[in-house]
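Hi Y.,

Following your request, here is the sequence exactly as I used it, all 334 residues.
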Amino acid sequence: MFRNVLVAALMVSAAPAFANDSVAELGTGGLILSRSDAVTMKSEDLYISPEKVTVDYVFRNDTDKNVNAIVAFPMPDIEGDPNEMPAIPNDQSDNFLGFEVTIDGVGVKPELEQKAFALGIDISADLKAQNVPLYPFGDAVNAALAKLPPAVVADWVDRGIIIEDSADDGSGFKTSYAPFWQLRSTYWWRSTFPAGKDVRVSHRYKPSVGGTSSVSFFYDGKFQGQYDAYKTKYCMDDAFEGAVRKAVKENADGYPQYYESRIAYILTTGGNWASGSIGKFKLTIDKGNPKALVSFCGDNVRKVGPTTFEMTADDFYPERDIDILILNPAESSN
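Below is the corresponding structure, written out as tokens. Let me know if you'd prefer a different format.
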């Protein structure tokens, strides 16, 4: 189980300056197999940075018969709420994380299964009947909603499918409507695991990096605000807190010139295999800027290079997911 804390520097070369309110990160993880009784996960090599997540697996079918199975990659659920904008790497595409997969080095084109829900009810058919994309962000969905007949608008507002989102464009308030449904997306493909052989599966995507424009747990020279929740979630210990006190410089308003970035990785799906554990597990966190600080839970984390930190384990059973907190120095403090 993850326990210890790593205090290190992490590079966030392309992280934007966030607005005053928090931008939520979307928790994303690894692969799920439909037939886990015959296939074991020999190894998982997981690399996480704010720029990309790569996962290299070695699966093995230890039986004497080939196993045909569906392999799935659940994308994070997206809530179409204009008041709760999540961090989405590509908000104009169904493949909003840029997911890619290879099997034994050969690229695979997976199927995409998508469904939309409002109040727990599948409303996918309603959206398709009005030529409204299921993906709740981007220019295409806004254009489609603007063309809805008034009767459909009234019905969808009553059913919690859309919500009024009026704004002043400089010439007065304009009434428009925004998606309020939830999108569930899963990439999947059929795969054969030959008897007694290893199969190497690799996938990569750009993570959803949430954050705030300042530090939500330390201000006015004190640990407060989100401190209690963060201490548990990110395993902030005395060493990390000491590093925060030392590194954070306060401006004239008493607020630190740092901002948060957060990454969530759902690791617990890695236990969905015949052995119930991962034979050999390696986690690598990439770093870059020595002025940034990072805290997350992990056992026996060690520095293995100028920009990388690593944790390894044998017969690893993932008991909790990985949550990474990064404090990035603002440009003015570089």
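Residues 1-21 have pLDDT under 50 and may be disordered.

Thanks again,
Q.
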